[in-house]
Structure formats: C-alpha cells, structure tokens
Design goal:
two-stranded antiparallel sheet, alpha/beta, 18 helices, single chain, binds 3'-phosphate-adenosine-5'-phosphate sulfate, five-stranded parallel beta sheet
C-alpha cells in the first residue's frame, strides 16, 4: 500500500458576517456552512476536507481522461464528446448516464450539503447512491473523471500522467446558468435576484468559486502536452473544429462519417432531447425515486438540466449596472493576461 500524500490545505477560518451571508444565500448548507479552502479560497461545505484529502490521492492512469471545469461551463457537452470519441462513437453503449455510469464525478460527496448526502445514503435511489459512494478505485480503466476542483486540489501527478481537458466559459453566461442550476438543485435561496447573485459571484462567495483563479491556473498550463484548453464559445462557434481538436488530443482519428454523426449528436437540440445527458441527470442527484421525483415535478417547476445553451444569454438577465460591474471585474482580473472571453 502506498502512503497517502498529505493534503496541504485546511478550511480557512471565516468571519461571522461571511457565515451570515452564506447562510442567507445558501441555507441548505446550514448548519455545517460553507468555507473557503486552500490558497484561492475555493468554496465548499466546511466538512469537505476528508473528501478533498481522498481526491488528492485519487489513482491516475496514463489512459485516463479528466474533464476539469468550473460548473456550467460545458462539462456535460465535453464529457459526451470525449466519451464517444474514446469509445469509437458507440452510441448504443452511450445510452446510460454520464455520471455515474460512464464518468466518475470526483467530488460529488464533498460538494453536497451534509444532510442531503445523508438523505441519499439512507434513501431509495440506487443511482444517486452509486453516484455518491462508488470509489474511483472501483472503476475500470481507462477512467473518465469529471471534476470542478481547481487543478491544485487535484492529484499532484494528474498533468504528468493523464489527459486533462479544461473548458472555460465567459463568466457572465456562467453566472446566469449557475443561478438557474442552484435553483433547480435547491442550493440557493429561491427568492434571490440575479443581480444579488452576481454580486456574490464576483466576490467568489458561491460554492465552487472563485472564478478567475480557477480559470487562470488552467490557462497557465495550456501549453502542457497533457492539457487541452477549450472555450465553451468555441464549441458553439465551431463544434466540428473542436471535435477534431479533441480527437487529435486523444490520439484518435475520426472518419468524415463519424465526424458528421458526432456533430449532429452534440448540437444543443440533440443534447436537450437526449435523456442520458438531460432529464435523468436530475434523478441521478436526488435521494428521491423516479416516481417521487415525477410527483414533485408535477407540483413545482420543470426540472431541465439543458437550459438554453447560448452565448450572450446574460443580456436577457442582468441589469445595466450588474453588466457594467461584471465588465469592470473581468477587465481587472484579466489585466496582464492573454486570455479573452467572448461574451456575446
Ligand atoms: S454542470 O452542472 O456543471 O456539469 O453543467 P455544464 O454541463 O458544465 O454546463 C451546462 C451548460 O452547458 C450547456 N450545454 C450546451 N450548450 C450548447 N450546446 C450544447 N450541446 C450543450 N450542452 C450543454 C447547458 O445548456 C448549460 O448552459 P445554460 O446556459 O444553462 O443553458
């Protein structure tokens, strides 16, 4: 047995004001609360450390592929693409959930509010139990891993060993998409406005943020031969070109016919209709059975995972002031870097 690599980070102490803000915005995480971890203050439930230590020591093999992203930046889209490219466009075998069936969602336990994690443990939904509690070690190789952790919280050997695909999305659209996601998954105050949320987003006071340190850490690794850095907006603009780029990176060659097939499988309208990457995703993360979830859905809002898939959707949501505040923040954070986001 190998000795575990000591995990070098602790949850940072937080002020009473911070706790109060977090508790008002994200009550589901009470009473454990959210806390910043590590040098960039990555926000997670305050009891996440033992999980993070495990993830830091996760097994990594040379044929493994890790999709590393901030939430809502094109993870699912890229996961489906990568899995199909690696598996020779086997659409029949792709008729099952990305996570837990095809991908390991590394930190799903760590980011789930403590009592929800326990509800899933005690609950009747076998899929969510598998999603939460199957160790990475039990997955067959090559392993497909999805994570929103920043690179410094991933295993230190990751980039020397496996292939990593990082997908970035402009922060304005990510903010709107995340605002919707946290409502669907009941992880924020449902009455919060998008402008209030944008303030928390800029301050990095949202689970799995702050935004810029995460992106810039990966951007700085973009020339590493084991790293492919993609933008959501490029996937939108030139899906076929991105499929080719990913296939090249993974050492796979695709016929013209395979490219055509993948392109039509991966466009938004197809992904939205595909239950394995859309509708059933909500079920996979719930302690409820399919019947219980259907009853809940009938009595509340529609639970769609694939929402709009657009670049520039933020224009329909932000006030002028919020948009200007975001622009100033983006300019400030990107000064002196070469990274450019397309926002619409
Ligand atoms: S998650 O929950 O973090 O894994 O979400 P993630 O998959 O990263 O991001 C979800 C957003 O990606 C959009 N999406 C797409 N857009 C365009 N084309 C395709 N094929 C596609 N697939 C997923 C999805 O709709 C979410 O964005 P929004 O803006 O909310 O629609």
């Amino acid at each position: 047995m190998t000795t575990p690599v000591p995990f070098p980070y602790e949850a940072q102490p937080v002020s009473a004001e911070f706790q109060k803000r977090m508790s008002a915005a994200y009550p589901v995480f009470d009473p454990v609360g959210l806390a910043p971890f590590g040098p960039t203050g990555y926000i997670m439930p305050a009891d996440a450390r033992p999980f993070l230590e495990q993830h830091y020591n996760a097994p990594v093999g040379p044929d493994d592929v890790w999709i590393v992203t901030l939430p809502k930046c094109g993870t699912t889209w890229t996961q489906e693409m990568v899995w199909l490219i690696k598996n020779d466009c086997d659409y029949e075998s792709a008729k099952c959930l990305l996570s837990p069936d095809r991908y390991h969602f590394l930190e799903i336990c760590a980011i789930t509010a403590t009592q929800c994690r326990e509800e899933i443990r005690q609950g009747q939904n076998p899929v969510s139990k598998r999603l939460m509690f199957t160790p990475l070690q039990e997955r067959p190789e090559p392993r497909f891993v999805k994570t929103h952790l920043p690179l410094h919280l991933c295993p230190p050997t990751l980039l020397d060993t496996a292939k990593v695909i990082y997908v970035a999305r402009n922060p304005k659209d990510m903010c709107v998409s995340y605002f919707n996601h946290l409502k669907v998954f009941e992880e924020r105050d449902p009455n919060m406005s998008i402008d209030e949320f944008a303030n928390l987003f800029i301050a990095g006071e949202v689970s799995q943020l702050p935004f810029f340190p995460h992106v810039l850490e990966a951007w700085n690794q973009r020339h590493n031969p084991n790293m492919l850095f993609l933008f959501f907006e490029d996937l939108k603009r030139d899906l076929r070109g991105c499929i080719k780029k990913v296939a090249d990176f993974l050492g796979k060659s695709l016929t013209g016919e395979q490219l055509d097939g993948l392109e039509s499988h991966l466009i938004f309208s197809s992904m939205k209709k595909n239950p394995w990457v859309n509708k059933s995703v909500i079920l996979a993360y719930s302690p409820l059975t399919a019947e219980q979830l259907a009853a809940k859905e009938a009595s509340s809002q529609k639970t769609e995972f694939m929402r709009k898939g657009e670049t520039g959707d933020w224009k329909k949501h932000f006030s002028k002031e919020t948009s200007a505040k975001m622009d100033a923040w983006i300019d400030r954070e990107l000064a002196g870097t070469e990274i450019k986001f397309v926002t619409g």
